[in-house]
Amino acid sequence: MRTRFAFSILLLGVATVACGQTVSLDDRPCPCASGYTCCSAQNMCVAEGTACPGGSGGGEQQPPGTPPSTKPVVSNDPVVLAHAQSARCITTYKDRVYWENADGLLVSMRSDGGDQQIGTLQTPTADNPKCGIVVQDDIVWRTSYALGQIVREGIPHSETWGTVSFSGNVTTPSSLAIDSEYLYVTEHTTGFVSRLAHDGTPLSVVAYNLVRPDRVVVDGSNIYWIELGTSGAKDGAVKMAYKSGGDPITLAKNLEGPVDLARAGDNLYYSTQDGVFAINLASPTVFKSSTVFAESLGVTGPVVTDDKNVFWSDLDGIHRQAFASPGGELIDKKSVVLALAVDDLRVYWTDGESVTSVGKFR
Predict the structure, then answer these.
(1) Which residues contact residue 94 at a Cβ distance below 8 angstroms, ignoring those fewer than 6 apart?
(2) Cα–Cα distance for residue pair 68/30, rounded to 1 Å
């Protein structure tokens, strides 16, 4: 792999956030402020003496600061965590959700909807909706497509929250992946997949001469990505490269409109206009065959995985299907989804206007 760029320090303006209007605390997720009762079954706050939704009596009184129930929310699902965000990428880490808002600021919130924190580093938003965000060891990395930078910030309640350590000098970064040593980034318009160390030391090239690479993911030994290909043509592809080096390997080709990529178990899952497909990486053949994992109603959107399931979206909504199961489940009717993320209990998505979550098992 060849060295390409040296890293540079990014100096950007600090945005200030002010608020001056009274906000109602009704219907907010638990824990609740003084004077409000937590309805634990619905994970929401109501004024003292007010009946919980779906019940005849008042809520189960819990002192302010009491953590919410760890049960998946059912009667109050889906839950809108934040409005007017225009978020394009989202991820989860420990008990929090992270995204970039319409102002180019990092936003973090507890997965139950409380304790929203907004970063101080403002990056210019881009017309292109591509972006990437990853979190590891209490550090957030996110791309700035317009600046050609990778921004590193501490997470809320850590010693480094709100500080910026470095930026990698890249061209139109569109997605990110991370392992214990490196960051991996797709450079959308120049056709590179590159990697750099966490501390920002120079970039090296993993692959080049690609047609709009995107959605990079990694496992212990390999790097995977999709090539979007030429608009309107069936020249998209799924490719991989060994971390140890060597030429890229094509896993699937002649694709029209590949969208997203996820890695779990023995399989690599990718979405296209026709559905979600699985590539068995345990196959001994060099060129892997793709099998239909789930057919789609209309254009398929993002795809993510946990340790047992695949989640994806299409025009019908957001679906869940177990790895070994022949049938899936519609968990929410939402036709516009820009990005998906999951944690132990919930699925999170952005739709260009809000950030919302729903229980994984309905």
Answers:
(1) none
(2) 5
